[in-house]
Amino acid sequence: MKAVHVTIEGCVQGVGFRAWTEYEARSRGLRGWVRNRRDGSVEAVFAGDDAAVDEMVEACRAGPRAASVSRVSAEPIADDGKPGFRSLPTV
Fold this sequence. Notes:
Layout: E1 2-11, H1 17-27, E2 31-36, E3 42-48, H2 50-60, E4 68-76, E5 85-87
Parallel strand pairs: 2-5
Antiparallel strand pairs: 1-3, 1-4, 2-3
């Protein structure tokens, strides 16, 4: 099991990125959250099976059809153990 904090940059707001991320993460059985940031990026935490987390980070490099991702960074973090995957308010 692993957990990562991910930042996605590019044209990633106003294109359904949060909803797409929530769907994709849940379909992979991941826990965590996703939210928009005021700087125009999207950030997320993915926790779960190593392979599923790696797949989700890789999927973020493309995102939903309308997105144009220029950069994805992922840093390992401690898993908080909270259940489910949710969308959080913008910060």
